[in-house]
Amino acid sequence: MKTKAAILVEQNKPIIIDEIEIPKLLPGQVLVEIKYSGICQSQLNEWRGKKGKDPYLPHTFGHEGTGVVLDTGPNVTKVKPGDYVVLTWIKSTGANVPGCAYKDNSGKTINSGAISTFMEKSVVSENRLVPINKNDIPLDLAALLGCAILTGGGMVVNELKPQAGESIAIWGIGGIGACAVMAAAALGCKPIIAIDIKDNKLNLAKELGADILINGNNEPLEKIMEITDNNGVDFGIESVGNVKVMEAGFEAVKKSGGKFIIAGNAKKDDKIKINPFDLIAGKKILGSWGGAAKPDEDIPKYIKQFKNGKLPIDKLITHCISLENINEAFNLLESGDAGRILIKIN
Q: Which class does domain 2-146+316-344 fall in?
């Protein structure tokens, strides 16, 4: 059996669409027909080489999506053929199987991780799948449950854990930041301050529940301190990937308990500078690995919130682009002129 796949052959060069051979399933592996895939800054950085030299080229990629199970390898018990699933890079229950190797028509090896979603059919590790009821949520919207919502929402719900009425500043309203705004609004944070340099992103943040919008070019740190009577916000999240924004965001949280989470992917070898006295004064700076999400538990909770009208995922998606036009999708993402972009696979 063969499948079409988007393949990263060389960084900063166009992604190619090619046909590759699907290998025999090993224990713990699942063959999934991909329906939709999200595309995010992490893959853009991978393509642009911002994470450094890529030792796995050529390879498939993509790490959030939805699909239907076609077949399972030995010892798989979590899913069965016909099940609809969310695919996520965040490990859940089930076998943890290393990536497989595909072959192109010339016999060349095409590497793959434990999950890849920029392809028509994909061999996926069992623990990167969460079964869902397709009648509970449309498959296009559910694709964002694999990364954007788990990470953006998880940073708020699982890590910061704000109470209603506590303030939060969210720097960067891409997929992760927008999901953080949604989660903060659902928990009753006040005020929710959204910072971005794009007006369309700020408008989206307002739709999702942000109370105060600040253009990042207009001294956002000073404005936040003015809004909070020079005390700073209770919580902050950075999802831009810019060290200057990280530094300003940490400075903007209050002393004696303020918490700031960094989620943005900065360029390899970039460093941040902070005042050690801020740590002594009780501020906390954290990193986040997927919003401390537990996909098997969190995805059903987010689906329930969606069904109850508390998680307007549909507002996040601005474009749906075919697999054949994936380079266009990456260029659009890089421009900053889109919300969340979906790749429609099948």
A: alpha beta
